[in-house]
Amino acid sequence: MSFKVGDMVAVLDDIIKGKVTAVYQNKIVIETTDGFSFDFLPNELVVIKESQSELSKYSDISNESLLEKIDESSNKKNAPKFKSSLKEEKLQPMEVDLHIHQLTESTRGMDNYDMLNLQIETAKHKIEFAIRNRIPKIVFIHGVGAGVLKTELDFLFKNYHIDSYAASFKKYGLGATEVYIYQNPKK
């Protein structure tokens, strides 16, 4: 793969991305968004063609009611103009599985800190996705473990206008947290 100065790239076996600042025969120099420079071999990098926000539009949403709602909104232009007398079914919450094997194909080269950061960043992006798309509930499946991820999630939730509580024990066991997102009314 050929790289040129200015390309946005990501490191294959790490959670680093940045802009190419120099290209040599066996070395590519990138600068991260934090301003750090790193040298990599060309086979360790991949060019990012689409932004993460564009890719998150096609996120793996496992909520059938939400997917139906998205389909309905895209077909509203052609839909007949009448109101249904049936009550709306209770909207099921969006489910996000934060187990590391669900977030990455390989943990090679990642230590516990890197894995935890990936899980927290994923949770953060899903909360912001839900806020933008006015999704009121999310269930984060984090597992039981030593409780480190759960503690970090609780800390993350303090940055948003949300309530968090244990998700349905019957459905998820002890390893899940449900959040309710307070939405501002549309103006």
Compact summary:
This protein has helices at about 50-55, 65-75, 100-105, 110-130, 150-155, 170, and strands at about 10, 15-25, 30, 35-40, 45, 95, 135-140, 160-165, 175-180.
Outline the low-pLDDT stretches. Answer: 80-89
What is the level-2 CATH architecture name of the largest domain?
2-Layer Sandwich
What's the β-strand tally?
9
Number of helices: 6
Strand residue content: 15-25%
Strand order of the largest sheet: 4-3-2-1-5
Shape: elongated
Taken in chain order, the helices and strands follow as EEEEEHHEHHEHEHE
Chain-averaged pLDDT: 79
Q: What is the domain tally?
A: 2
Task: Provide the CATH topology of the largest domain.
Answer: Ribosomal Protein S8, Chain: A, domain 1
Taking the sheet with the most strands, its summary is: 5 strands, antiparallel
- The separation of the N and C termini measures 48 Å
Commentary on this structure:
The chain has two domains: 8-52, Roll (SH3 type barrels); 92-187, Ribosomal Protein S8, Chain: A, domain 1. It contains six helices and nine strands; from the N terminus they run E-E-E-E-E-H-H-E-H-H-E-H-E-H-E. It is of the alpha+beta class and 187 residues long. The protein has helices at residues 52-55, 64-75, 100-103, 112-132, 148-157, 169-172, and strands at 8-11, 17-23, 28-32, 37-40, 45-47, 94-97, 137-141, 162-166, 176-181. A hairpin with a 4-residue loop joins strand 3 and strand 4. A five-stranded antiparallel sheet has the order 4-3-2-1-5, with no helix packed on it.
